[in-house]
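For this section, I looked closely at the sequence of one protein beside the tokens encoding its backbone, which the following lines show:
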Amino acid sequence: MDRLGVRGVECQNRRVSRTDLPTGTVTFLFTDVEGSTRLLNEYGEGYADLLDAHRAALRSAFAQHDGVEVDTQGDAFFVAFPRAADAVAAAAAARDALHGGPIRVRMGLHTGEPLVTAEGYVGLDVHRAARIAAAAHGGQIVLSETTRQLLDGDGLRDLGRHRLKDLTDAQRLYQLGGGDFPPLRTLDATNLPVAASPLVGRERELHDLVELLSNGTRLLTLTGPGGTGKTRLALQAAGELVGTFRDGVFWVSLAGLSDPDLTLSEIAHAIGARDDFEAFLRDKELLILLDNFEHLLDAAPAVTGALAASHGLRVLVTSRAPLRLAGEREYRLDPLPAGDAATLFVERARAVGREVAPDATVAAICRRLDGLPLAVELAAARTKLLAPERLLERLDETLPLLTGGARDAPERQRTLRATIEWSHELLDAAGRELFARLAVFAGSFPVAAAEEVCGADLDGLSTLVDSSLLKPIGDDRLLMLETIREYAVERLASSPQAGDVRTRHDEFFSELAADAYRGRFDGEAEWSARLELDHDDLRAALDRLTQQDVDRALALAGALGWFWLSHGHLAEGRERLAAVLDRSGATGPARARALVATGALTARLGSADEGRAQVEEGIRLWSELGDHAELAAALDTLGWLLVYDAGDDAASLEAFERSVALRRGAGDRNGETRALVGVCQVLVALGDVERAEALSRELLEVAGGEARTEHFAYHFLADCALIRGEVLDARARYRESLRAALPLGDVIETSFEVQGVAMAAAGAGDARLALLLAASVEALWESLGTSISVAFWDALLERHIGCARAELGDTADDIYAEGRALAFEDAVQLALASG
């Protein structure tokens, strides 16, 4: 965390008069010594002299370029400059003065227009400069795009876009001067969501959470009523810990989940555990943030099972109530203190175009709202139309009436509800109707969905965003916070339009699934990513249809089958499909599609015979219906099932060749290519290297950039090279196939490529790398609960990995154990870097 804080800065060691601080456009410079603890241990008492010399050198550089020292804490400086060029010159001079010495200082610069109060600077620009400094390395000077725009650009290296640990959207950063440094310490390798703005206040709570999770607490539940900012604080704590857990930091949003039985699979999917969750966790070191758990408390025992599976696991939970589990540490979150609440109000008011000062009126507003962050944000949004004085009058007039609700509700909860209701009542009639209709969405939703399902227009959505009743997230997507959505759901339930809105919601997401099904071959990665974003709403539509119109539910579930298979929702997909297949009497395309999908999922989960029977029943139905395109696709599914799950090469070849004939007869060149991929796989399995290699080269020529076809073509070429003993060529081809497979998100196909690189490495004499990679894949498959056995592939593995074991002798077991503990993502990077 930032040593000098992230909000209005009070000067502690060297207090500066308010009148001395630069105003208007100001460039902030933060510095920090890298490895101060190591230096103290190395130099002992002599470190104090080194630190004094470092301070003198920096202060001299700052003074020469009109810098004003705002604050100093320990070995860190916070300095303000009226001109960006002076700040950059001072940073360069300070770096040069320390060159060659034992102390290496990281520096970050950012330019903005902060407010100046009696306590110092207030504004998120201070926060941003501190975050930039924290991302840098010793001897490195990093500056923001805002600062760069005020310079001539000479001597700057573009470091690209990076997400800082304030969780906001990626920012373009630049390095001053030469020198090679490790990658910036930013958030480019985590699934933590983008925040609308940096966290305001909560320094003590943030410090406490980070300390608890870093020092032995394994289950930490952040509790408090709605609107206290639990989610935002927990996300920030998780962001601070990115890079400290070997196997990652993962966020799992549970707000859109209604069935406690799906909680475990949702968590497993988020962290990449496709099936056997507890086996996947074994030997892992990671942090999981479970967000909005209060409505799924029946699933709490699953958390205990996860913690028992891995001693390296930490779980951070946000919930309105504790989980009541052994070993749980509850951390109760209170409303914001007065100063932080005022700062939050000022920042959110500025975001809607109203410049206000944190004065007595703002303080009174925040007191009136009990310091609840969500209530403060909602009120601040109204300053776009109302001055703070008038806003306070409205609150004094309105809240006493609105807080007269249930007497057993906590006072602050009633205050929050009253604030939401007050914000709602300030909307015009059209805005109130739109607000209620938007409650139909279970998760975040695209603007296009709001327009089609709810009859929204951009002006109406903008009004709700300006009122803080909606939040924009990512590319053209919106989110209604769960606390606000609860209120909106009540409004929708009492609306005569509720049934029509839900019907349009079901229709929209059914059509989305159908479009994705039709487009899955031409844009697999794009469609599967879109369905993942809308998975909560697809589930909600499927749940409603399962109760109200099971035949339409069958059609929706069947269209989602391919997505559940490729994205690892194996158990959920099979369960949902089985439920609607049992209840629906439909006999047409919907049943055929659902049978094929169910069979593929069932086989992948280990029941190959049952899965084969289901797929073959689907094939029979497609044949009766005379739909040759769907019949060919079903034959492809059967072919891959027979290769991977049943080991029947002859039947697999027959299925693929039937598919080729159907597609060739229909003039479907792309479909023919996909079927030929299957044929080529069987040729390799049968050892027909000559025909397989020729066909692989044809596939590579016609792939046209299509990732899955390229992936398989390179893979088969690598197989042929490996079978002939051309290990260097095989390794290069497996790496090409691995690069093509990664965008698909298909972990099984990716693991085959890592095994291929392992075998090629063994043949090339790198036995240690071979064992590391092979062992990592073995551990991955165990974590997924799958065991794929293809005879020719098993023989190759036994030959090459067996030779590597023999070469390493007594050390082989230790190296293999090291590989099993290697995160699969790290194994992928090792494979890509080899050779």
Observations:
- The CA atoms of residues 210 and 237 lie 6 Å apart.
- The longest strand covers residues 26-33.
